[in-house]
Amino acid sequence: MKKDFSSLLVTTDVTVKDVLAALDKNGKGVVFLVDHDQIMRGLLTDSDMRRALLKGASISDPAELYMNRDFVSGTLPKDKPENITLLNEKICSLPILNPSGRVVDLLRLTDLWRLPVMEPVLKGREMEYVLDCLNTNWISSQGKYVEQFEEKFRTYISTDHALSVSNGTVALHLAMAALGIGRGDEVIIPDLTFIAPASMTVLCGAKPVFVDVDRSTWTIDPENIEVHITPRTKAIIVVHLYGHPCEMDPIMEIARRHGLYVIEDCAEALGAEYKGRKVGAIGDVGTFSFFANKVITTGEGGMLTTSNPELYNTLRLLRDHGMSREKRYWHLVAGFNYRLTNLQAAIGLAQLERIDDFLRYRGEVVSRYSAQLKDVEGIVLPPQKEWAKNIYWLYSILVDKEATGIDRDTLMGHLSVHGIDTRPLFYPLHKQPPFPDEADNSFPNADWLSSCGLSLPTSNNIKLEDVDKVCAVICSATKNKSLFRKYEFGKDS
Ligand SMILES: Cc1ncc(COP(=O)(O)O)c(C=O)c1O
């Protein structure tokens, strides 16, 4: 069917008022001005009109007075790479002209296919279990799915206990509260991580003490921990960052020698293993997140794992208002309500039923990325120690500006214009406003990783062809044009 662009076109002899009316009607934020042979002569955007009116333009003025004559246009076919790369934050709508200069199509940034960094896959029994909750009225934090989810999780991680909570942040808060961490205590935390371990430490009244990360694992550097231990140190929170486990043996050895607790923040690493043991089963307590961008999701949600029965009882007591399990409404301590609902647990159970499939497929995705990016000069692949099973929560790379000829942020912009969402690595904690005491300390590895790292799309269902597109755009944006594998933009399989 022939496309109708009439609402986008006005003739060059119209007034400002006519252009405003056309903009109002087409809602696309732009009109193209054509002569009587339908040849495009210029364009006007919403912003152009706003600026003109502010400068004193009258609505009866000829629109031609304000028209952009120096406009950017594309050629057919609309979706070819050259056209797509012309789009950016300023040029959001590109007129596509035929050889005579007539408008034959329109390419808009918002119309482009987009590949998210991470999206949930809810194609198992989620709906069935949630409907069961709705049909039976078990929608709050009691019900069979909470128990089943916890039991399946406990078995999966190989710990004696698993306790579900409302998210990964409160899991950390609960862990610290149950371990008695509070005012006057210090907690060792990697400088490169999502903020939750540090902010929960602060909210417990304790002081976070940052330790630089290891360049080869991106996680806390065990060799750097001991110099930060003081008589006030109570715990080490290790973060298995981006799915790669921390080097646990030396960390556990240091912790035991100094009488410190180890909290494993496994929010990004469900299924990851250190020397064959699942993360979350190695320290005193493990914490997990089921936010929608995690390997499995419950929307919002979290879990704690431990094999210490006393700790489990305290965690459970504090999670449930500090209420006695024998005597209802009798509160042994002041506690929280950090429970997960049966509805969320229903989703979690269905997700956990698919974890092996998710991780198997992620392995294929990772191989596909690595095979294509390993020879791109200046691109450093994600860490993979011989003792580690990395689950690559987000496949993240480092960009060496000198070797690639492009800096990380420009590469992200380039990928974005091609419809590919990415994320920079976390900002080092010592640079962030809540931690002024750490601002002058030196964390060269965290600084370096944060300055040049980015995460690429890694959903559980990302198509391998889409991985190829991401790699092709990276190759074409760097000095490695020869590695650019041809594919057709816009043809989403
Ligand atoms: C390392 C780490 N810890 C904790 C959290 C907090 O989890 P939630 O978002 O479920 O509160 C996250 C979330 O992304 C995380 O990445």
List keywords for this structure.
alpha/beta; binds pyridoxal-5'-phosphate; 3 domains; single chain; 493 residues; disordered C terminus; Aspartate Aminotransferase, domain 2; CBS-domain; seven-stranded mixed sheet; Aspartate Aminotransferase, domain 1
Characterization of this structure:
The protein has helices at residues 16-26, 46-54, 81-86, 126-136, 144-157, 168-178, 196-203, 248-258, 309-319, 342-352, 355-373, 401-404, 408-417, 444-452, 464-477, and strands spanning 9-11, 30-34, 40-45, 74-75, 93-97, 103-108, 161-165, 186-190, 207-211, 233-239, 261-265, 273-274, 277-278, 285-289, 302-306, 379-380, 388-389, 396-399, 423-424, 453-455. The chain is an alpha/beta fold. The chain has three domains: 6-111, CBS-domain, CATH 3.10.580; 126-352, Aspartate Aminotransferase, domain 2; 355-483, Aspartate Aminotransferase, domain 1 (Alpha-Beta Complex). A seven-stranded mixed sheet has the order 7-15-14-11-10-8-9, with helices on both faces. Helix 4 (126-136) packs antiparallel against helix 10 and helix 6 (168-178) crosses helix 9 (309-319).
